[in-house]
Amino acid sequence: MAVEAKICGLSTPDAVDAAVAFGARWVGFVTYPPSPRHISTETMRALGARVPKGVVRVGLFVDPDDALLDEKLATGVLDLLQLHGAETPERAVAIKARTAKPVMKVIKVASAADVEHGIAAYAGVVDRLMFEAAGGTLPGGNAKTFDWTILSGRRVPVPWLLAGGLTPDNVAEAVRVTGAFAVDVSSGVESSRGVKSVELIRAFLARTASL
């Protein structure tokens, strides 16, 4: 069975089209201005409209307030909300109730305790988890990995994605060690910071499709 993949931080039509054409299960749009991958609401609307049914459009949020959620949801192009900040379980529940959208919470991992705490706190209230490397100057897209053996053999009671420093070259090993059925990539398919490479998107998705 092929490993499913999310291509995050998309900001151009060419990158979106490549992710869709080469088999991404999810495409991600960043709503965090400090990130070089941040896009405006209008750009999100235009890019999201290019995505066919069957590919899940994900909005990446960092501690969003209700006004920001309302603005982005009004575009009609978000199917899943990814919470990448310090959102509490209670806030995740409130966001899910307010937006009527499924929610994925990112757990930032530096040790096994982070994974254990994240599962205990969020598995009962969100639809998916993502395990991402802790640290870095941004909440994602930092090209940092973590000790994948932390996840080896671990039971996670909700669907989850592996993220953090993945590339076409290391994703097979990451999947082998962690047992992940789904992965997320951003910086690992960029030609320069914030600039997606069609060829690297193609290579990454070809690799995950073969796993």
Write the layout of secondary structure elements.
Layout: E1 4-7, H1 13-21, E2 26-30, H2 41-49, E3 56-61, H3 66-73, E4 80-83, H4 89-99, E5 103-109, H5 112-122, E6 128-133, E7 160-162, H6 171-178, E8 182-185, E9 190-192, E10 195-196, H7 198-209
Helix pairs in contact: 1-7
Properties at a glance:
211 residues, alpha/beta, TIM Barrel, eight-stranded parallel beta sheet
CATH superfamily: Aldolase class I
Quick one: how many beta strands? 10
The oligomeric status of these chains comes to single chain
Biggest sheet layout: 8 strands, parallel
Contiguous low-pLDDT stretches (5 residues minimum) are: none
Structural class: alpha/beta
Tally of helical runs: 7
Helix content: 25-40%
Mean pLDDT: 96
Q: DSSP strand (E) fraction?
A: 15-25%
Number of individual domains:
1
Order of helices and strands: EHEHEHEHEHEEHEEEH
End-to-end Cα distance: 7 Å
Would you identify the CATH architecture? Alpha-Beta Barrel
Q: What is the level 1 CATH name?
A: Alpha Beta
Q: Which fold does the CATH topology refer to?
A: TIM Barrel
What's the shape? Answer: globular
CA-based gyration radius = 16 Å
Please characterize this protein's 3D structure.
The protein is 32% helix and 21% strand. By secondary structure, it is of the alpha/beta class. The mean pLDDT is 96. The chain has one domain (4-209): TIM Barrel, CATH 3.20.20. The termini are close together. The strands form two sheets. It has an eight-stranded parallel β-sheet. It has a two-stranded antiparallel sheet with strand order 9-10. The chain contains seven helices and ten strands.
